[in-house]
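Attaching the record inline, Q. Sequence:
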Amino acid sequence: MARILTVTLNPALDLTVRLSHLQPGQVHRSQALLSHAAGKGVNVAQVLADLGHSVTVSGFLGENNQAPFNALFASRGFVDAFIRVPGDTRSNIKLAEDDGRVTDLNGPGPQVSELAQQALLDKLDQIAASHDAVVVAGSLPQGISAQWLCELLRRLKSLGLKVVLDTSGEALKQGLSAGPWLIKPNTEELSAALGHDIASLEAQTAAAAQLQARGVEHVVISHGAEGVNWFNPAFALQARPPKVRVASTVGAGDSLLAGMLHGLLSGHTPEQTLRTATAIGALAVTQIGFGISDAVHLATLESGVSLCPLTQE
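Structure, as predicted:
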């Protein structure tokens, strides 16, 4: 299996509140309150670990509330290369309703000094080259600019790593110029980054060709329950997941991304890679938390994924 580095610049403690139905302005009685050490790169790392890969996790963690992350890293066997910074890692509140709708209240993250930024760059210079790929995922904390992220991606790419980027907003817009190996935005995120709507298949095909000319080999565009489109210079495929009962959509995209990376680094065919990744994403929405909790259920979901080549009418 592969050695994979994940970089989560703005991790979070996810506090998931389960309730039957959210009525704004009203008092609610929750069904459950669950807490997870999370953040997009951390979520990806957990799925990759379940798939058998060796994972190093890095980024910035607040010193004041790092205990849940330390416990997760130890229990999962992750190599911990996070830089600790003063203050608290942010908390994100997820309001998960019985029908699967999730309302997110995301915190801003700690202030990251230039000293801490340099410490992370130095750490990555020391460890990155021993890995097969790096996943840079999630939002940016205070003090980190989109341009700094772009330079980080270029630095990692220069070390010979396959660079995977999963972010949004200005970070995605700037990050695309670094030519990452794989990206996984949804339609709205990529539309915003490119400055024009890409809802149609024709627009997505054109956008993928434009990005591939800039060095992005794999353009994976997620559509939630409607599936995922994968554009590569040699092929274009669409996958549609089976219908499942949704517990929470949190982490579904991260799980899909982990599945894509797993297949690509394991030498699987494009069809098998996309089928497995789509099933892993479908499994994620049936649970609260991250990882592959039921291999038998995953196999059943995989058999229910439909694949077809993407062709314009």
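The first strand starts at residue 3 and ends at 8. Residues 10 and 140 are 6 Å apart (CA to CA).

More tomorrow.
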